[in-house]
């Protein structure tokens, strides 16, 4: 084995360990039951007739990614659910690392479970990071468009990422991409220009019948360039967080984990008939 290959294996392990700093208190909370959501006795109301399924991002899980946003929606009368997906054997807590097309299949099964439990005809989806992109595969290739009304992506990597140009170095290390694909397939799938993303985006970003909203931040250091997050289509609402509140400095993690301005805009997308202006004061809403 070449020396650089021996170095890449601990590097992947280091990336997994570094996720602890990105996903707060993962060890403490991942095993804890969610509070107020994943309640299968919940029945959607006339004002919020569709359950909301939350789709976490890379290295995250169904609890930690949504400790702020899930209660935010529950307090507003929604039936809210979240799933774990993309697990790798022997890797606890940190999910969304397996092949993304397989993860989309897990989402398909979960949405069917939620619809059966709630009696709703359709669900709404909200995802962060990879979770704001992966459901597009479900919508496009797995029949999800017939079961989903609205899809909100928060800091999604819809057209992949260059990680500020770092991914452009991979061709200079023969075999590096193959090793990345074998160790953490989802990371390889999210590189700009990957075979997965080429298939996902071929023929257009969206499918008919689904309302799309993308909420991005100009300070995103993970999905770069940030404008690659935006979608093109006839029923797409692309939003830059700083256009809503110029002083909001949330980056990739914070916009999905903590940012109530982004939460307010996501809630507007879920219930456009009762939407209110999102601005800096929305942090208090």
TrEMBL record:
Pfam families: Lipase_2 (PF01674). Residues 1-30 form the signal peptide. InterPro entries: AB_hydrolase_fold, Lipase_EstA/Esterase_EstB. Keywords: Signal. The keyword Lipoprotein does not apply. The keyword Metal-binding does not apply. This is Esterase/lipase family protein. It comes from Streptomyces kaempferi. The lineage of its organism: Bacteria, Bacillati, Actinomycetota, Actinomycetes, Kitasatosporales.
